[in-house]
Amino acid sequence: MWSVFPSRSSCFHTFGANKKNGTLKLPFALKIASIILVFFALIAGFLVDVPRLDILNETIRNLFFHVTSWFAMVFLFIASFGYSIHYLNTGNAKSDLLAKIFVQTGMVFGVAGLSTGMLWAQYTWGSYWVPDPKLNGAAVALLAYLAYVVLRNSMTDELARAKVSAVYNIFAFVMMVIFIFILPRMTSSLHPGNGGNPAFSSYDLDNSMRIVFYPATIGWILLGLWISELKYRIETLHKKDEEFSNASPIHLDGD
Amino acid sequence: MSDFRNPYTLSGAGLFMLSSLFVCYITIKRISTPSIWVALYWIIILFTSFNAVAKSFVNESRSRMLYYYTLINPAQFILAKMCYHAVLMLLLSIAGVVIYSTLFQMTIQDPLLFWTGAMLGSTGLAFVLSLLSTIAAKAGNNLTLLAILGLPILLPLILVSSALTKNAIDGLDWAVQWKYAFVLLGLNVVCFSLSVILFPYLWRE
């Protein structure tokens, strides 16, 4: 579903050092699917019958928005991690760019997951933020990825930046896994799914929630991929533009 | 390595720890709750480690790195660095615990476990910071960047080791403690192996 095709020759190629400018393409059908699924999730998420549980009540619908955002974020960070490893193995500048873009898109979903979670916490726990291992883990994981962005911005040499940030990305990903998936399981947590609090598995009886949840997850992931694709194309164009104006002996802008 | 030729780094880190300990003592004087005692200890150790480890890569000049490059392979280089930093951090944290517990009285119910936690925590700090300081050095040697990069990555380590040491002060049973000790050991192994695997990619410019 996700492929990188080397493109045909383009008129800018002769100017740039970058020989293989590829296009990253999400098939058209999947884009349509993502629109349909996301809208389905938004509408059905508010209309579908949900189990009546104490305290949670209607806030259980947050599952469709909060948990799906985190799934999409983790998916995008895994993609970024994969591209960073690929970059270190091959030195392909495309992989470096993709790793960066997936981190950026992943962070958008991370912020969405964090804010939906905070809203939910206000209604169920009575406070936007509680000192819970899962919440702190999520916040710190986002901080680590923000640090990745800062690191990238602090370096100008492209080759060094790509290498260094790939290394940091791999480190950050491993720590995120430890922080979000291992540490919360060690201590008791208020968060659903820990310490006997109801989570997704307890809703198993209720198939109507699954009917919305799975499409929503797939929809958000596809949307994330689509955003990444657009960003990738924009950045590639910027790069070509830069290469063109740097390499061209005639200065088109007149100065 | 160059640290011994330039003893300022070593004494600088030690002095930094000593003065921050003393500043804490003067301002706080007495700590009665174990959780705050432990938190303050780890904060001091954390910043000491930034000072101790970060300096080491900052001091390496470009030409000396080139010289190392002709002598040994990257895995050997980072292994040597990590061992050296681990020993340095162990010494610093031994001194830290001794001075800290003299200044702030605290009865530690399970000393063996407390020392295990303190030692494993400080070696973990050394391993992670060895790699991160190389990254920060590549990005223009600034300490702010190291702090930004390091703090989120080091937090799991700090959390687990502070939980372990706090439980050791409270004298919790091994049945509760083993998983913290195990995870702390695991974090050390993960950080160690990640650094060895990833460093060769940073080595050559």
Structure description:
- The complex is a heterodimer of chains A (255) and B (205).
- Chain A is 66% helix and 3% strand.
- Chain A is mainly α and 255 residues long.
- Chain A has one domain.
- In chain A, strands 1-2 form a two-stranded antiparallel ribbon.
- In chain A, α2 crosses α5 and α3 (93-124) runs parallel beside α5 (158-186).
- The termini of chain A are far apart.
- Chain B is an all-alpha fold and 205 residues long.
- Chain B has one domain (2-203).
- In chain B, 86% of the residues lie in helices and 0% in strands.
- Chain B is built from eight helices and no strands.
- The mean pLDDT of chain B is 85.
- The A-B interface holds A 88, 140-141, 143-144, 147, 150-151, 154-155, 160-161, 163-164, 166-168, 170-172, 174-175, 178-179, 182-183, 186-187 and B 131-132, 135, 138-140, 142, 145, 148-149, 151-153, 155-156, 159-160, 163, 179-180, 183, 187, 190, 194, 198, 201-202, 205.
Secondary-structure blueprint:
The complex is a heterodimer of chains A (255) and B (205).
Chain A: E1 3-6, E2 22-25, H1 28-47, H2 66-90, H3 93-124, H4 133-154, H5 158-186, H6 207-247
Antiparallel strand pairs in A: 1-2
Chain B: H1 2-5, H2 8-28, H3 34-59, H4 62-71, H5 74-103, H6 111-138, H7 143-170, H8 174-203
Helix pairs in contact in B: 2-3, 2-5, 3-5, 3-6, 3-7, 5-6, 5-8, 6-7, 6-8, 7-8
